[in-house]
Amino acid sequence: MTISIICTNKDAQPWVAALKALDPALDVQVWPNETRKADIEFALCWNHPEGVLQDFPNLRCICSMGAGIDHLLNDAFFPKDIPVARIVDPLLAQSMFEYICAAVMHTFRDFDLYKTQQQKNIWQQQAPKQIAKTTVGIMGLGKLGQYTANKLSDIGFHVVGWSRSQKNIEGVSCYAGNEQLGEFLAQASTLVCLLPLTDETRGILNTENFNQLPKGACLVNVARGEHLIEEDLLTALDSGQLRSACLDVFKEEPLPQTHPFWLNPRILLTPHCSSITDPASVAPQVLENYQRMKSDQPLMNQVNPFRGY
Ligand code: NAP
């Protein structure tokens, strides 16, 4: 039995090392250099080339190397009948919270405005704000969203959250479904997107929804670039409906050199680094799933490819 690591824009070697450190006898091969494709039963994937999974006739489990599975489902030939697992990791959640906290604090304490003032030698205090009267809205109350919502609430922000099914989270006002989206958006002076990318959520960061936010709201997108309609963001920033955007993910990555986001003073952008999976931290759960697959037990962190997350 063999594991194959199939990734196109990640270094496979730290993953091989982390798995081998736990089980030196493990047979781990790396795409495209597998020698015995028929032996491979477990594929660990990130942005695999379309159709490549069809080369493995005995595949029994596919595991994402991150929290999302949209990169798997982009493949028109993806075998949806094979069980799929993803990564759920406390370090991933903590790292995501740290990034979002920094992004929210950046505008809550007006660092963006002070940076602009500094460039013009302007000494001027902005009006003080109270954390308890500042509302952060989190779209997506899953593993990362719930953790972040709890932590932001602990710091003192008023936190509202939105998900598909109704949640009950202490300290967080929860809204669910399309019927309650407007009520949720109307409160969020900073909107954080932590949704999975599905047919329902693609393009959800658009003019119609931006217009339901309080005027001058800030946007933080750490989910996927395809959640955002890029032209709608530029329009909302130009009109002042949005004050600023902090973006970690983009439709095309790396962001093309000529893209207008690079030079927009109201956009802070980072290279998809808000929460990066640490192979050493997640190798135990990958190995655990490999063992479970071998003994026909239910997988940990299994997802439903038909639902899309
Ligand atoms: P998760 O545990 O699967 O949670 C997803 C949440 O989104 C759930 O609360 C779900 O609602 C909600 N949701 C899904 N479809 C919805 C819809 N149509 N309307 C309203 N709510 C909807 O996911 P996670 O582990 O928190 O990760 C979230 C996403 O973060 C990932 O999919 C990935 O794209 C992104 N991510 C980015 C980075 C980065 O470095 N930038 C790193 C890790 C993850 P229910 O609870 O009702 O099902």
Describe this structure in words.
The chain is of the alpha/beta class. The protein has 9 helices and 13 strands. The strands form 2 sheets. It has a 7-stranded parallel β-sheet. Strands 2-1-3-4-5-13 form a 6-stranded mixed β-sheet, covered by helices on one side. Helix 2 links the parallel strand 4 and strand 5. Helix 1 packs across helix 9 and helix 3 packs across helix 5. The model has no long low-confidence stretch (mean pLDDT 97). Bound molecules: NADP nicotinamide-adenine-dinucleotide phosphate. NADP nicotinamide-adenine-dinucleotide phosphate binds next to helix 5.
Task: Please write out the topology.
Layout lengths: L1 E6 L5 H10 L5 E3 L9 E7 L14 E4 L5 H4 L10 E2 L4 H19 L2 H9 L15 E5 L3 H13 L2 E6 L8 E5 L4 H5 L4 E4 L13 H4 L6 E5 L8 H10 L2 E6 L19 E3 L9 H16 L7 E2 L6
Parallel strand pairs: 1-2, 1-3, 3-4, 4-5, 6-7, 6-9, 7-8, 9-10, 10-11, 11-12
Antiparallel strand pairs: 5-13
Helix pairs in contact: 1-9, 3-5
Bound molecules: NADP nicotinamide-adenine-dinucleotide phosphate (NAP).
The site of NADP nicotinamide-adenine-dinucleotide phosphate has 29 residues, from helix 5.
Question: Which terms summarize this structure?
Answer:
six-stranded mixed beta sheet, 309 residues, 13 strands, alpha/beta, seven-stranded parallel beta sheet, binds NADP nicotinamide-adenine-dinucleotide phosphate
